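Q: For a teaching handout, I want to show students what a protein-ligand complex looks like in token form. Below are the inputs, and the small molecule is S-adenosylmethionine. Please produce the holo structure.
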Amino acid sequence: MSDVRALTVTGELVDYAVAHGSWPEDPVLSDLRNQTTALGPVAGMQIGPDQGQLLTLFTRLVGARRAVEVGTFTGYSSLCIARGLASGGTLLCCDVSEEWTAMARTAWQRAGVAERVELRIAPAIETLRSLPTEPTIDLAFIDADKGGYWDYWNELAPRVRPGGVLLADNVLWSGRVADDNGDENTRAIREFNDRVAADDRVEAVLLPAFDGLTIALRR
Ligand SMILES: C[S@@+](CC[C@H](N)C(=O)[O-])C[C@H]1O[C@@H](n2cnc3c(N)ncnc32)[C@H](O)[C@@H]1O
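A: Here is the structure, written as tokens, with S-adenosylmethionine included.
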């Protein structure tokens, strides 16, 4: 077994880290966070500002002009990706909720990125299957229903260009992946992680940060 890391990442440390990145939360992001918090416990689905900065950085690292997000919710992660897009770049957002994504639309308008974002309200698997099969996507971020992860990955992997990046959130599932007798979502994430590890289309790292983030480079 590997050494246990001693550092506990407190809220204070997250704030410190975010303040020392290139994209500290601006009023659009912090207002969106506050509005989402007001929705109640579902707000736990939103990524943190530290992960948001990493999404912007990845988007810039791959020079993304074509990005896809599976699971948009109120828009925090989409905003971070949209802001990192290269000139003329676009982000396709997949979600099933008109209600939650209405908040995202407002935030995109406010941030001046609305014209870069296309939102499709439909089961994500339908949207992904309707996309051209050529490898034109530079960056894909999966953060929706856990039972769908592998199907989303499997639709996205052939469509991501060599050198592009696939990201999947919550792959440690609050630590429950270590539990053999987990619930349906835990089993789905465990199976997803096993399949990614064996997927020779990509080179992948499961980063034990946030709630676990898979970062994969398309071969
Ligand atoms: C964890 S939240 C996404 C959080 C978002 N990335 C953020 O950082 O704020 C998951 C989202 O997936 C959406 N979702 C659930 N099942 C879906 C499906 N089958 N197809 C598309 N979206 C789905 C939900 O409506 C919800 O908005």
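A: Two things your students might notice: Residues 114 and 185 are 33 Å apart (CA to CA). The two ends are 30 Å apart (CA to CA).
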